[in-house]
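note to self: dont lose this again. the chain is below, predicted strucutre after it. 255 aa total, dont forget to put it in the shared folder this time
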Amino acid sequence: MTVPVKRIKGGNVKKARGKVARRGAGVKKPSLSVQSRSKSAAKSIAKAPAKTASLKSGPKRATAPLTRAKRQVAALKAELAAAQVRIDELQAWADTDFLLNIYNRRGFERELERSIAYIRRYKASAALIVLDVDRLKPINDTFGHAAGDIVLKGVVAVLMRHVRSSDVVGRLGGDEFGVLLWNLTQADAVAKAQALEDAIDRLTFVIKGHSVVAGASAGIALIGPNDVAALAMEAADRAMYARKNARRGRALAAT
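---
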């Protein structure tokens, strides 16, 4: 069966075309807002690696304060070490007789206290010798204190030659010296004190064209685990004066 075709006449063609045009105008183009959103999405995708990079660099920035703190701690430790060295130097100066380069009384008594603590802990023993230089005052009065200093240096040289590296030598004041000797019996201590006296008695000094001799008197105190430093010093000092009086008596008898 044939479908009849309706023909559009003349002016109706223009109307039909206008309707088609109007229908085409009804289809909307993508709006600018949609385009801008798509562009911003593209930009955000492009920026995503940068954010990832910033996240990766985050821990490095976080460790920066820790690194600075470690440097500050290291600097403070270095300052503390330098201060401790300075304290040790001042301590040594406070305990040293600078004329003779040995312990002064303060340093010697400190070493004696430490030694007695060791003796008490390990049941060791030691001998303390207090030695007084004879005739030093007449030498100072006749030739001056510079001459007395020469005699004192000669006495210290003798003491250092007759002791071991573990022993302690100090100047107790003026013309008096202390010698701490480890692990000696009473007989050994007496023999050592006698050897020191003999060596110092043999010393001869030429001062301003004059031959000068001094001499020394030594007293002994044995130290055990139950002894106290101050009492040991007093005992050795009394023994030294007793020895000095005995030597002076023999010298007078010889004249």
